[in-house]
Write a structure and sequence with these properties.
3 domains; 21% strand; alpha+beta; Nucleotidyltransferase, domain 5; 420 residues; 12 helices; five-stranded mixed sheet
Length: 420
């Protein structure tokens, strides 16, 4: 490692024998005895240590993904125990069922770490009387083996760091989709305020991990990061008021079915440049029937669509990979066999008709989405997925595709996130 001259001179003062290793430019060339945190070598060595340890304990990782590990024990052809380990750098989550080797894995990791001069792991076990923290998420075990995942500490810090006028009942004003913005509110923010705006919206975005009900509002405000206006900053202040009014909000996980479903909806021409907005959500089980959302996304479409049907087809194309990735993960974890074709819920009958009937039901105004359409239709024809109609009033992805408030917002929030 090369130490720059401005720092090397202090090494020489502290240890004069280091002078003989000075280079012509007065930098200092040194060889590390151990990897320092933050250097590329450290990440590589840490990964190799962890990988070798888990393999020695009988674990296999997901193909092309060394963050998800699994060990299955069988007897007479029947599974008697399952152990799953999730890894994020140096944070681990261990989930097991009838597995007697959890302490052995911990001891093995501690032994391997000690040989490298690293401190032992700090472990915490989830019980009804003891919640755990993982990557900033607070995970609580509720009666009936339900989980409640939230970020109360982070939400409190946001409410204390950023100003708001009063507590709110929705993430954006009720008239957000129909309001007229005054010339004063359309003025662009100054340079310092732009920096603050970007920092604030990205800080709020971290809450979307446990609060899908704010995903659409956050996505809309993220599109203004290049040139935020006064009204956009007011919207963020309003959003902080909503967070302050719901510090302990989170999502209840009460999984009763492992079958995957995809919900996709689109808000047509909802942005000021008339581009549409897509919301997508993959669930385990049907929402409203014990289903639980496991991944969700809310984003602005990249093209302007002449018709809502075209926008819906683009939305299907944009969100279909969520279902594919979730299916890949489920195949590795194998909590239960998936039934094909997967159901994709849509609230636009014209979109469903075009998706199945093909070119004969289309016309020139939709030709620009042919590539997206044919890519998606292959999965319909191949029996991987099917489209089912679900009316807008019951479609949970509506909350991810459009900014809602009032009774609609509460209805979809309860449907998606559950209540405790």
């Amino acid at each position: 490692m090369r130490i720059k001259p401005s720092i090397a001179k202090y090494f020489v003062l502290a240890d004069p024998s280091a002078r003989e290793f000075l280079q012509r430019d007065n930098s200092l060339l040194v060889q590390l005895e151990k990897a320092l945190y933050g250097l590329p070598e450290a990440g590589k060595l840490w990964h190799e240590l962890l990988r070798d340890c888990l393999k020695a304990c009988g674990y296999t990782h997901r193909p092309n993904d060394t963050t998800t590990w699994k060990r299955v024990e069988k007897k007479d052809g029947k599974v008697i125990s399952v152990s799953i380990i999730l890894v994020f750098v140096d944070d681990f989550m261990h989930i097991w069922k009838t597995f007697a080797g959890s302490d052995r894995i911990r001891d093995k990791l501690h032994a391997d770490l000690s040989t490298k001069g690293l401190p032992p792991l700090k472990c915490s076990r989830l019980t009804e009387n003891n919640s755990v923290s993982f990557l900033g998420l607070s995970i609580q075990l509720l009666p009936g083996f339900r989980l409640f995942v939230s970020q109360p500490g982070y939400a409190t810090a946001l409410a204390e760091q950023y100003p708001f006028k009063r507590k709110q009942n929705s993430p954006l004003p009720p008239d957000f989709n129909s309001r007229t913005v005054s010339e004063e509110d359309q003025e662009l923010l100054g340079e310092a305020d732009v920096t603050r705006y970007r920092k604030e919206i990205m800080s709020i975005a971290w809450l979307v991990r446990t609060r899908p009900n704010i995903a659409a509002a956050v996505a809309h405000k993220q599109t203004r990061c290049s040139n935020p206006r006064v009204i956009d900053q007011k919207d963020l202040d309003y959003m902080i008021g909503f967070i302050a009014n719901n510090i302990n909000a989170g999502i209840v996980i009460d999984c009763r079915d492992t079958q995957l479903y995809l919900y996709v909806d689109v808000g047509h021409a909802t942005h000021e440049d008339k581009k549409s907005h897509t919301g997508g959500m993959v669930t385990m089980g049907k929402l409203g029937e014990g289903g639980v959302p496991i991944v969700w996304k809310s984003l602005k479409q990249k093209v302007v669509s002449l018709h809502s049907t075209s926008a819906e087809l683009i939305g299907l194309s944009d969100m279909f990979d969520l279902l594919q990735c979730a299916n890949d993960l489920m195949q590795f974890l194998q909590p239960g066999r998936q039934q094909l074709p997967f159901t994709v819920f849509q609230d636009n009958t014209s979109t469903i008709t075009i998706a199945y009937m093909g070119r004969s039901s289309s016309h020139a105004k939709r030709r620009f989405i042919e590539i997206r359409y044919f890519w998606f239709k292959e999965h319909l024809d191949g029996g991987f997925a099917k489209l089912d109609y679900l009316r807008s009033e019951d479609h949970p992805a509506d909350l991810l595709a459009s900014v809602r408030s009032g009774a609609e917002f509460k209805h979809f929030t309860n449907l998606i996130m559950g209540t405790i």
